[in-house]
Specification:
The structure is a single chain. The protein has 238 residues and is of the alpha+beta class. The protein folds into two domains: 151 residues, no CATH class; 79 residues, ACT domain (Alpha-Beta Plaits), CATH 3.30.70. It is 56% helix and 18% strand. It is built from nine helices and six strands. A four-stranded antiparallel beta sheet has the order 4-5-3-6, covered by helices on one side. Strands 1-2 form a two-stranded antiparallel ribbon. The longest helix is centred in the N-terminal third of the chain and has 25 residues.
Length: 238
């Protein structure tokens, strides 16, 4: 009986437990950063993803323990197939975090962090600690330091603009373009709509500016136009 227990719990069990624990901790640390920024896939999701991938990779690392035929050279297996299957499945999990709101797409960074966490879990599962720790440090850098850089890099702001006029008081297109140009906007595309039943004419467009404060100036200018019966400004950038 004692020898049977020793067969099940060998010296490598400590290494197995260590790998799973490290994977859980590292995944949780990456997930904390996502949770801090209010993302749905946060602390627990990343922790479980990293640990589960490490767990699955242990199947290939310790094949000889559950498949004695391998040690006798009768059967050959390809451990990389497990990694390929894991990353394919993680792709579906990451897709669940991506949401589209109008022209804005949210969750891409969280999906990428989940995929990266899975890769780190695979490295930990096979005992490749050094690249796993380096990848963890680089992941934190991309999620925190790069955010700081991204917020300070000049970017173009895109906004959906809808303006409605009474049918008989429609502002000419040239006047609309002139107003937007004066306030620092350029038009990406422009659509028209006439509703004879409700009696209004509508401009719908995507406009671009290099200064987000111009959106407030545009809102103020449109409120002061008596011919405008309704307008909507919907920024398309997070």
């Amino acid at each position: 009986m004692v020898s049977t227990i020793q067969d099940w719990f060998s010296a490598s069990d400590g290494e197995i437990a260590l790998r799973l624990l490290v994977a859980l901790i590292i995944g949780g640390l990456i997930g904390l950063e996502r949770s801090y920024h209010g993302r749905p896939a946060g602390f627990r999701t990343h922790a479980l993803v990293c640990m589960s991938t490490a767990l699955l990779m242990l199947i290939t690392v310790y094949e000889s323990r559950w498949f004695p035929g391998l040690s006798q050279g009768r059967i050959a297996m390809d451990p990389t197939r497990m990694a390929q299957g894991i990353m394919t499945g993680i792709g579906f999990l990451g897709a669940g975090t991506i949401m589209k709101e109008g022209l804005t797409v949210r969750g891409l960074t969280t999906a990428a962090s989940i995929w990266t966490t899975a890769a780190i879990g695979i490295l930990i599962g096979i005992g490749f600690y050094f690249p796993a720790f380096i990848a963890t440090a680089l992941t934190f850098g991309a999620l925190s330091l790069f955010r700081w850089i991204e917020e300070r890099v000049p970017v173009a702001f895109y906004t959906q603009l809808l303006i409605r006029f009474a049918r008989d008081e429609t502002m000419p297109e040239n006047a609309i373009r002139s107003l937007l140009r004066k306030l620092g906007f350029s038009i990406a595309n422009l659509h028209y709509r006439l509703d004879t039943q409700e009696g209004f004419f509508e401009y719908r467009m995507v406009i671009r500016t290099d200064n987000m404060e111009n959106v407030q100036a545009l809102s103020k200018a449109l409120k002061e136009l008596p011919s405008v019966i309704e307008f909507r400004l919907s920024p398309t950038r997070d």
